[in-house]
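Changelog entry: the Glycosyl transferase record was regenerated in this release. Current contents:
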Amino acid sequence: MILHVVQHLAPGGLETLVLEMLRFAQPNHSVFVVSLEGSKAQAQQCWSKLSAYQGQLHFLNKKPGFSGKTISTLTSMLKGLKPDVVHTHHIGPLLYGGIAARLAQVPVIIHTEHDAWHLNSRKSARLQSLLLKMIRPHVVADANFVAEQIQTKLNYRKVCTIHNGIDCQKFQSGNQATKRNLFGLPANKTVIGVAGRLEAVKGHKVLIEAFSHLTPNTHLAIAGDGSQRDQLEAQVRTLKLEDRVTFLGLVDDMPSFYQSLDLFCLPSLQEGFPLSTLEAQACDIPCVATDVGGVKETLCPINSTLVEANR
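Regenerated structure tokens:
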């Protein structure tokens, strides 16, 4: 049995990757996911995709802040389930899942770090360094950049890089006209797309400002939702771009979204090894992306390019 521990199961790259690990698990492997935050009802309401895996999902509904009770609850769960492997993702799940796995004497503990921006905080770096020494997991980085940051800032050398992957049977080139009709996007304009959580760190504000300087024969399609949506919609109105920008909300059919585009843009201010650029390129869509984290490791130099972040 393999048990993954994540902070939450809101739509995102890391969360999508973990669900893909469930989907592609070997038939003789039992695989489960524990979400520290949220409830099953809340998560499924926000992300319908979870309903296909509901028998494999557990939610601890942890509130903000440190919770010793969560460690106790998770330790009891692990002692009951007796997993062969606990796999934590990011620093919060390492704290709760890693300690619980040690207390429950789980044979194998793996920790994957999906980005490294939090290591710029001295407090976070000290905490992660302490946890790695206490828990002694097998440490995986999803990008060479992330591995280098762990080795440099934590002086932790035993790190291997395993790049994220995508399902290339799912993400392929398609009929652009048909897909544009599906999303109500203009057929006769150059369509630029962006996908991700609508949060400040994802750089949508900068992208919309830059887009406002392009010619009127361009259109911006924004897939995703988040806390910044109202602000971004207000920015679009202020710039008088209402007829040139489409907010699609959460999109379940991401291959069709990419196939509707002429260009995909990743304007993030911080990243690890993003899936979206891999997915877009697999659909034969060129990318323009900010040079942050491990983004450059995802791009094909023939038809995609890097730009400076926040410019």
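DSSP finds eleven helices and 13 strands in the chain.
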